[in-house]
Specification:
This protein is mainly alpha-helical. The protein is 88% helix and 0% strand.
Length: 129
């Protein structure tokens, strides 16, 4: 009678252990799949960022907008050294810019950051509140 009980109990234990092993293997496979997917997404992001930088560098070769923006940003710098009248013009200009709507201020920031291909500046302007 004891042997009649031992056989089914052993089968039950064996089935239970197989189920646990399968469950453990499934969890490991799921984790591996998730890790591979995250790795692929990161790879695509990095590749996309690099591709963006390359394309922006190629586009800026024939563009004059960088020079134009550099000139515009140099005007307040030069005026700051032109005595009180120059500094007054600069201060009044920046006061006027502060009064502009935020969307306009952000747009200026985006234009400059896009022109010089600095994503960090674009992130800064995008996060400013």
């Amino acid at each position: 009678m004891l042997q009649a009980l031992i056989g089914p109990i052993a089968n039950l234990a064996s089935t239970f252990m197989e189920g646990r092993q399968q469950k453990s293997a499934a969890k490991a496979e799921l984790q591996l799949t998730k890790t591979k997917a995250e790795s692929e997404l990161l790879h695509r992001k990095i590749t996309g960022d690099i591709d963006w930088d390359v394309e922006m560098a190629k586009a800026s070769v024939t563009s004059w907008k960088d020079e134009w923006l550099t000139l515009l940003f140099s005007i307040p710098l030069v005026l700051a050294f032109c005595g009180e009248w120059g500094r007054e013009i600069v201060f009044e200009g920046f006061k006027a810019l502060e009064q502009m709507p935020q969307f306009y201020q952000y747009t200026l920031g985006v234009i400059v950051s896009a022109s010089f291909a600095t994503r960090s500046a674009a992130k800064f302007f995008g996060q400013k509140k």
